[in-house]
Amino acid sequence: MNSSARPIAVVTGANTGIGRATAVHLASKGWRTFATVRGISKADKLLAHAEKNGASVEIVEMDIAEDGSVRAAFDEILRICGHVDVLVNNAGIGGNGVVEEASAQQYLDAFNVNVLGSLRCIKRVLPTMRERRSGTIVNVTSVVGRLAAIAQAPYVTSKWAFEGLSEELAHEVAPFGIRVAIIEPGITRSSIFGKNIDAPNDSGQYDSHYRRMFRFYEVGASHASPAEDVAEVIHHAAVTDNPRLRYACSWGGETITAGRQSMSDEQWVKLGAALDDEEYYSKFAQYFGVDLNK
């Protein structure tokens, strides 16, 4: 047991967006928070944000895509603290492309970070969580972990896999007093929008798919929820006495996940067959409560 009575959290991908907001939020609540970044030299904004909010975070350099980097980072954290109370697996990457045209390497890259990266971290904290019969693992997936959003096949596939891994993990570790929470954000304010510009369309047959995908993010960006809103959900999931497995949040999160759950698979396929954009946007609003008209 660490000499400090403060709960100990590790937040991955803490340099921007949800990860940064979560690390600062937990630290502001009195948690001893280790914020992982790929490069310490690039953590200036994180540290400035923490200082602005009167919080103190401890920076740890870690690349979740590399076994050795994850091992070294957690060895250091566990050497200092002995255990981790809450692991927030937030780090991840996107990946545009329709199934036909996305490369095998895109899928491998997305899986290596979004699934295996989190798995590497999970495997490092579970032994002491099992020993202590307590702990929470918070996995940040996405609304596209429940909805096969078009033209993002590598990203969607990896997030669906992460959902499956998380659900299985929750079942497996329940006897040890360990909880798993799946956070499914919709559109959240992030620098990712400026980077999400890939539209390969090598065959020239998928113009409408990329157009509709970009429309979703364009409209979503104008309504995007603050990352701090997701941070509050993550904190709640970690401390609540009435835990749930899944927490949909941010713009579109709740309505989209509920809409997909209530519609039939045949309706989903039929929606994809809509040739006219306006028909597609109208049906999308009908099913998911999200208006994609500007």
How would you characterize the overall build of this protein?
The chain is of the alpha/beta class and 294 residues long. It has 2 domains: 8-214 and 224-262, 3-Layer(aba) Sandwich (Rossmann fold), CATH 3.40.50; 263-294, no CATH class. The termini are far apart. The radius of gyration is 19 Å and the shape is globular. The protein has helices at residues 17-28, 44-52, 67-81, 104-132, 153-173, 192-195, 207-223, 227-239, 253-262, 265-272, 277-288, and strands at residues 8-11, 32-37, 57-61, 86-89, 135-140, 178-185, 246-249. Helix 1 packs across helix 8 (227-239), helix 3 runs parallel beside helix 4 (104-132) and helix 4 runs parallel beside helix 5 (153-173). The protein is built from 11 helices and 7 strands. It has a 7-stranded parallel sheet, with helices on both faces.
Summarize the helices and strands and which ones pair or pack.
Elements: E1 8-11, H1 17-28, E2 32-37, H2 44-52, E3 57-61, H3 67-81, E4 86-89, H4 104-132, E5 135-140, H5 153-173, E6 178-185, H6 192-195, H7 207-223, H8 227-239, E7 246-249, H9 253-262, H10 265-272, H11 277-288
Parallel strand pairs: 1-2, 1-4, 2-3, 4-5, 5-6, 6-7
Helix pairs in contact: 1-8, 3-4, 4-5
Quick recap:
By secondary structure, the protein is of the alpha/beta class. It is built from eleven helices and seven strands.
